[in-house]
UniProtKB/TrEMBL annotation:
Secretion signal span: none
Database matches in PANTHER family: LEUCINE-RESPONSIVE REGULATORY PROTEIN, TRANSCRIPTIONAL REGULATOR AZLB
UniProt keyword Zinc-finger present: no
GO cellular component labels: cytosol
Protein known as: Putative HTH-type trans
Keyword annotations from UniProtKB, A to Z: Plasmid
């Protein structure tokens, strides 16, 4: 599942607090600072919809500076990651 939280404060202090909080939650497997409409993209491993709801309520919505969260999940793999081709 991917979650893209939008921060309401863009100061260095708030971004540092957000990133420090993300590192404390093992449910959050990956975190990327993004360009465009979302400030960050998180990869969260969940077993089912109930687990997602718990993580959304107890973890994602409590991260410092978060105003909104856009989330999505894959239905199935069409093309999994592949290694880079050598030129």
């Amino acid at each position: 599942m991917q979650a893209s939280p939008g921060a309401y404060r863009q100061t260095e202090d708030y971004l540092d607090k957000f990133e420090a909080a993300v590192r404390k939650h093992p449910e959050i497997r990956e975190c990327y600072l993004m360009t465009g409409g979302s400030d960050y993209m998180l990869r969260v491993d969940v077993e089912n919809a109930g687990a997602f709801e718990r993580i959304h309520k107890e973890v994602l919505s409590t991260l410092p500076g978060v105003l909104r969260i856009h989330s999505s999940f894959s239905i199935r793999d069409v093309l999994a990651a592949r290694s880079k081709q050598k030129r």
